[in-house]
Amino acid sequence: MNLSIPFALLCVSLPCINSASFPVGVYKTGCHSRSFWIWVQKDFLGPTWQIEIFNDTSYPVVLDDDLSAQCGYTKSRDVYGNVEVRISFLGCWVNNLNDNQFDTAVQFRARRSNGDITYLLSKSCQLLDPWNMREIICEENYMEVSVIRIVPLDRNWLKTDPQQFWPLVQGGLSQRWQVQFTVNKTQIIMSAKDAFKKGYGMNATATRVVFRTRYQSLESMILTDGDYHYNAILSIMYYTQALIRLTVNTTLACPNDPPVMTQTSLSWLTPAVLSPLVLEPSLYTTTNLKLGLNGQLIDANLIAQNHYTFQNDGNTVDVTVPIGAPGGYTESDIVNNTYGSSYRIHLFLEQEWNEQPADITRHTMFKPIVTPFQPLPPIFINYTIPENYYFNVSLGNFFPDVDLKSFIIKKVPLTVIEAKNMGFNVIKVPNANNTNAFFLQVPFNDPLVVQQYINETTSRHYTLYVTYVMTLLEKDKDFTYTEVVVCILADVVLPTYNGSCGADRLILDMTHGNLDRYWIPYIRNLPLTRDLAQSEKYVINGQGPVFHFEVPLFAVGLVYEDITLRGIMARLDWSLRDNKTLEIKSKYSVFCRFPTDRLLVCFPNGTVKATVIGLDTKPNFNPQKTHLKDPTCTPKEADDTLALFSFSVYNCGTVRKFDGDFLLYENEVTFDREVLPENQPIISRDSNYRLTLRCKYPVRDIQQFHGKLKEIPIKRGFSAVYRSSQARALKKREHDELGAVLRLSKDDTFTNFYQSEDFPVAIQRAAGLYFEVDVPRKLPGFPPAMLQECWATITPQKDGFPQWDLIANGNLKRHCAVNIFKGQHSKFGIANTGVPKTNIYVHCQLALHEAVSCQNTKRPDQETEKRSVPPAGPYPISVGPITIVKDNGVQYLHVGEKTWSSWVWILSVGLAVFVVFTIAAVSVAARIFVC
Ligand SMILES: *[C@@H]1O[C@H](CO)[C@@H](O)[C@H](O)[C@H]1NC(C)=O
Ligand SMILES: *[C@@H]1O[C@H](CO)[C@@H](O)[C@H](O)[C@H]1NC(C)=O
Ligand SMILES: *[C@@H]1O[C@H](CO)[C@@H](O)[C@H](O)[C@H]1NC(C)=O
Ligand SMILES: *[C@@H]1O[C@H](CO)[C@@H](O)[C@H](O)[C@H]1NC(C)=O
Ligand SMILES: *[C@@H]1O[C@H](CO)[C@@H](O)[C@H](O)[C@H]1NC(C)=O
Ligand SMILES: *[C@@H]1O[C@H](CO)[C@@H](O)[C@H](O)[C@H]1NC(C)=O
């Protein structure tokens, strides 16, 4: 094929802008039996394009639909949508050499944004298959008949006589060619020129007369023969000369019944005998019947191979094609949000018959068929075998024009490449029917797989939320399919627990299962955080397969189930919770019983429990005989050594005080000494015992528990317990055989004194400190006491260091301002400037000035040898702590081991609404002397 020569010429005479050749591969040309065939890749020309042919003066003429039908050009698409142009060998502007060699040249004009581009094409074809007497073609857009003409004269007469040469007739120079139509049994005769104007195509070539028409012309008819319908034109062309009249029967008929469709196949049924074209049915003989596909005849082998049925029973020619069979094309689409497809196949049927042996007619019918859209909902199959530990699913079945674009798994978009890189297996598996399924394998342990443990079982749910994003390759349209696959597998190993009790702690050992590492540990309703563990001195060892956990007895987080004299029943509630829903996944409780020692517990609901211990004094007192301020409030339980009080802060004479943001509840345990005689109590051998119990609640939370008290029953159990170690320290320190007390006066009048429960006391630096030593007067025969030494320390211990001397050898130090000794009261005052800035404790030692000899008459159990005067001393007494504050701000002083900031912390985690505060005890042991 040589394109350059004709178009190089054209370019000289015509504006030749952007003229180009088709790139290799985007176009094809070929010669069919009666036509040229041109193919151009579908996207190449863009959405807007046209074909131009060159008229006799080489001007490009646009081929519109009418001109195409009139001149034998068919613009079509193949089943795949590529451009296909067929040009009849007998069409206009085809260079026809003796009806044997044909040349054509066309120009495609593509409209581009930056101007038109034209592509030139030319093609030459040689006739391979000789012309029959009559040839009828039922094209997509026209019907054409050509009939051999009997040549009475010289073979070339038409060519040598331009006057007689069609189409010059149409120029009106000759009226020798005429057309006669038969419509509704009426004849209509017109000149060839008029017929041409009406859109009919006519020509006389070297050997043939050609007549062509579009389907719905004015003179066309629909003929019916039995069940069949034809588009038909009954026409005759005449050539009339003085001596001769040439008549050519150009009757045309094309069956036009639509194919019969079923779900699975399509059937194209045509009459075996095309009756409008048959003159003598009795002489009718079929000589040839052939099926063609995509412009090419196909043989029986291919027909069988493609599973087509091609039958002629004498009445009907039946071509049946299974939908989706090879040779056609299935095109996917999305209609109404549903995936589906339609099937296209381009068939043609070539039929030859004769009535006289030589009168062979060849009738060719082109039949492009498109099935209606058929929805094909995608099929999702779950092939998962849970024991394999991966999801195996597939989505099908899609025709090859659909591909997998990406996935969305648990809302994460993943291209196929990304999915593969994540270790997912993605496979396209072809099915027998030319469709594909897309397999996806996702391991159970992938983070994109949702795992859900089912409470109290050993099963978990593995859930795959998958969306396939599919794309229609030809249409650039996407659609999605979403599925949720759940597999239940009993593969959970739960943690196992072992609880034990230490001397002062509860111990939990948890052997890990295979899920608990994803859960959050909780102590009761508190997440086990590093801070909590540190502040509460939990011991944690999380290494290895066993998680070891120790909680000290009085640490926050424990539950005290029961506090009786038998012991404290403490419970550690351990749980593991889901990290999102906080649902408890696993739990275990450790119970331990500890001895009830000294303790004071202030429960959030306002209940106070406290023990008193008879051993705290010498001689020991009987705890059973203790009571609270309200003497009817006696111990809930008591034995010889221990009593347990349990009372509400609203009862038993409990005193309530506001202290800033706190409410302070205070009560006192006292022991009633047995005195003799009862009405005039002078003598007792029992110890004097007082114990102050204090609970301090934040006001905010008090309101809460007041509210709660009304509405719901008091929750039993939880509180924190703090041992009052400072109380023990004070008790030991104050234990003094003389019964003397060192008191801190509120001012220098020595009329008001701070009570033991007032400590710590804050004193401004400027104020000075006034002390009084009080030796009970009611003990007659007591020798006068002398203040020997007084000193200050910053710890409760008398021997604490550093020390500041206040009185040495009975003499005031220089910085002490006052020293009043009056009877049995020794008073002294000191200026604060001389003492340290922080808390101080003041200690003194008393000495007795004279020993008195007495006789013990009352105590039979008391050994007489031991009756003697008390030793001269020293008798230590202490008071404190006292906080010396710089300015008017009163500083909080706390006696316990814990700093105030740690209390605040505990409160801020919302745990407790209480503060255990002070157990201050004063006990005075008395000896009985009878003089
Ligand atoms: C060819 O087309 C051009 C432009 O339409 C027209 O001027 C010319 O007459 C035509 N030539 C013939 C022979 O029809
Ligand atoms: C008629 O046929 C001749 C060839 O025989 C051809 O060159 C001419 O273009 C045709 N004219 C029409 C109008 O078909
Ligand atoms: C032929 O008859 C049909 C209906 O009988 C009518 O529609 C059609 O126009 C007629 N054709 C002509 C050319 O008169
Ligand atoms: C032309 O031929 C057809 C059959 O091919 C026939 O039916 C019709 O009568 C013929 N026309 C004339 C005018 O002979
Ligand atoms: C789309 O779906 C609606 C409702 O299901 C239906 O009425 C309509 O006919 C459908 N359209 C097509 C083109 O299938
Ligand atoms: C998928 O298959 C597995 C194994 O047969 C089965 O356990 C599971 O229930 C299935 N899931 C769905 C959603 O069908």
UniProtKB/TrEMBL annotation:
The keyword Membrane applies. InterPro entries: Ig-like_ZP (IPR058876), ZP-C (IPR055355), ZP-C_dom (IPR042235), ZP-N (IPR055356), ZP_dom (IPR001507). The chain crosses the membrane at residues 903-930. The keyword Signal applies. It comes from the Eukaryota. It holds the Pfam family Ig-like. Keywords: Disulfide bond, Membrane, Signal, Transmembrane, Transmembrane helix. SMART domains: ZP. Residues 1-19 form the signal peptide. Residues 601-868 form the ZP domain. This is ZP domain-containing protein.
